[in-house]
Input
Amino acid sequence: MSRRAETSSQVPVKDVLPAFADAFPFERFNEMQSAVVPALLDSDENVVVSAPTASGKTAVAEAAICQTLSTDGTALFLAPLRALTNEKEREWERFEELGYSVYVVTGERDLHPRRAKRADILVMTPEKADSATRKHDSRRYSFVEDIDCCVIDEVHLLDSDGRGSVLEVTISRLRRLCDPRVVALSATMSNAEDVAAWLDAPEETTFAFDESVRPVPLEADVAIYSHGENAFADKYRRLYRALDLAEPHIREDGQALVFVASRQDTVQAAKKARDELAARDIPVGARGDYEFHQAAEQLQNDTLRQSVLDGVGFHHAGLARKDKNLVEEWFRDGTIELLFSTSTLAWGVNLPARCVVIRDTTHHDPLEGEVEMSPLDILQMLGRAGRPGYDDQGYAWVVCDGDDASRYRRLLSHGKNIESRLAERSTGADGPPSGDLATHLNAEIALGNVRSVEDAMDWLETTFYWVRAQQASAYASGDDLSNQVRATLDWLVSNEFIEMDGSAVEPTPLGRLASDYYLDLPTARQFADLTDGELTSERALRAVSAAEEFDSVSARSAEQDAIDAVLGEQATGMDAGNRKVLAILRSGMNTTTPTELRSDAWVIRQNAQRLLSALRAIVDRFGDPTGANLVRRLEARVETGISDDAVGLTAIDGIGSTRASSLAAAGYQSPADVATATVSELTAAGLADGVAERVHKSASELPAIEVDWGAFPETVARGERTLCEVTVESVGGSARAGLSVLVREDEQESDSGVEMTTKDSYLGQTTLPVGVFGGSADRVEYSIRVVFPDLPLAPVERSKVVRVE
Output
């Protein structure tokens, strides 16, 4: 279904979208855009557009958004990467200037439900949209029920392991929830008609453009390098091969963009390339340009500042926003002639170069280890070759060894079908028969969308998997698919995520929690099993470190000594990757993360915080408040790096790691300490005046426990029994609490005791019945313990000793 755009027609923006002409950085749509725009503006049908990278799909997305805004609707833009949601927020200040609000919803930002509800344009990743649609009936996420148009950027993400099934089920759920118009955009894919069939887009609104619509023709090929035994040396062999390919273009005042595996690789490759370009006497750099020297002083990264003076730059997500902007500006104007980047750049900023080289076809993922780049990532990167208005031809290469050459050549010549990843077979011995299918089917059951086996099959018919199953023999269909669904349901039953009565299915509390907290199912099962015994900090941290979500984390050889330095001889039975996670969590809780582990630490800690939050909810539901409080305190420590003694300070609004450290250094250990201090004393501890006032007020609103023992006796006769009531009250704010009465006799260890009474309460004020008895011991200690499962406050214990006479 290949189309060529009509070259005779370039539609003026003001003719078709007069109210939004100022939102576009050009006056006319290009040929490809002009062919699509009538389908967006003159019908309400769903639209599918497959077109080469750099052909102008972003403007198609924006035209669809404008059409939605013109009818007072709400548009959702699904970006493939979290970094790109931030890019869109900055880019779409153009819409803000026209009076429309843009709101980004990601896991790393606090959600403001009212702003999300009022937004005209929402920007999310598929994962966040999946999570939000699972919670659509809550006040916080009800905004997802009001979406009128959903634009999917890079719908070929469907073919991505893990993430593809998330996009697939999210779109199916969203269509059932509020039936928005769907506009799906993709780089070249050979089966766009299958995506159109899934989305019910008719032929007249389905577009599959060939390479003729590229603004600059592309010549792409494979370059073979001599593979050795040493992976480190191979990196440099591939680098020299990449420089061989880039050199003629740089000599002709062209530019080269080289994609490498990791952030650190961009820095190291740029450093080596500077030396190599000088050795080859290739004329690059601006060492004699005084004005550029002055401009380079703006860069925060010292290594980057030196590199750009030699005409070589690097770009990755870890750079400061200003540094990235300057690198992009200087590459566009030709000041930087050779740029090394991670693959993220290919998905985001439109930064073309005459020559593009993929040096590394694998990349390091903190959670997945060494991962081969997907075919669609490869095509996305190669598509950046050729600068419109500057180059008559773009040149692109994949550097690989001879064994992989034929595979990449086939990809370049024939493209790739988009496949569904929803029901791929599980490879784990303890996992479900179809990993992603079980996870998403459990979510639909938890939401009440699937209530029977028949519902499960009906739900599958709404997925992209179902469409591909009708076309490709590799997919289960008919009775085979029914059997696969039944086997998946049986596994969910046996692991207590659902219950079945005949063909009827319903969720269990564990199934709901797994869905709500976005857990891999084996992880949810493992967390629930923790509640069978005594939960300690060590057990909790090991369980999180060994979670399925971290299953593919790898420990590189350069990291082993750092891991051993943190853990010593502990946890030697764990896999190396899980030990690495544990070492990052342990060291991060004390802000002593070794340098060798820092590149992956942020991502691992972010995911660990989510897992700890889920573990707390599971322990709260199936265990006890004491265990839930323990996990909540661990969660706060992983997030802030605060010691166990002072982590309760983070319960105060406005107190993060920096302020908590300042207060702890000044001797404040708890919110109660802060609440009893004066504002001037808090200012002396390092808080600004206004901050000190707010912190003092917040600390005063947290629970502060007082125990009234009432008529509790000082003595009791041996053999006598009496029942007393003890009043427990929070004289500060109220909170959910678990209360218990512990009894310790003389001969018992000080930290042990018999738990007599337990009670869950929302303090406030409550009373506890306490039985006082005169046994064989001469003295008995009665303790009231209060723990807060939702707050990182230390347990509060008040005791009274009764003499036995």
Residues 598-622 form the longest helix (25 residues). The longest strand covers residues 735-745. DSSP finds 32 helices and 25 strands in the chain.
